[in-house]
Amino acid sequence: MATTATPTLRFPLGSQVTPGDRLGSIRENLVPSNGTYEQGGHLYASVVGTLSLDDAVVKGKNRKLHFPVRVSLPDHNPPQVLRVGNIILGRVTRLSIQQAFVDILAGEGDLNGSNTNQNPEANLLIPSGEGIIRREDVRTGTADQVKLQDMFRAGDLVLCRIMQLGDRRYVLGTAEPALGVIRAFSKTSQAPMVPISWREMECPVTGEKELRKCAKPPKQLLSQILNNEV
Q1: How far is the C-alpha of 227 from the C-alpha of 121, rounded, in Å?
Q2: How far is Cα 168 from Cα 14, in angstroms, rounded to an integer?
Q3: Which residue from 66, 130, 187, 224 lies 20 to 30 Å from 230 (Cα-Cα)?
Q4: For residue 168, is it left (φ>0), alpha (ψ between -120 and 50) or beta?
Q5: Residue 30: pLDDT above 50?
Q6: pLDDT digits (tens, 9 = 90+) for 7-22
């Protein structure tokens, strides 16, 4: 006989969920379906949409019922969502010892959420959300050598790649040469600084230099993203 216990979800069926929302545990005999994924024993939403359960399926020698968890996109006017691998424009809001917190302002993609890595000049999304840049994802090399206060400052505009969907936050990285700080202001004059190397920016007014993890993105992508800054 199949077990028929009703699984427990963190959100009521029919709720609107967003990428990174934790939906439930595989201990509840939940399995991922469209719009969801499993990580560390938990199921997460990978798109913006409506939470539902598919018809139960019988699995295993013990004939247990497993419940596929689905997040469905609307039939019309699908939401603008980002995917792992997309590049985003963000603003650093605060720093801790281990990570920088970033408000997402814009990102590459399309309305269906398809990956556009092969065409970085594709149309942009204007999503909302927060991401984090961990020390180990700032640049190549040993994370112990990275001091976040020498890489970013609050208020900096940064280009990052989405590396994974965390629990309600995107996990971002800037290790590629094209990624990092694209706009920062001098702490003395408040003038926008100019990058002079991958790790330094210079104030055109005072000549003072400040440490940053500077980006060197394609000019067309940089121009397009800055024009979509909000």
Answers
A1: 13
A2: 19
A3: 187
A4: left
A5: yes
A6: 889 899 998 887 667 8
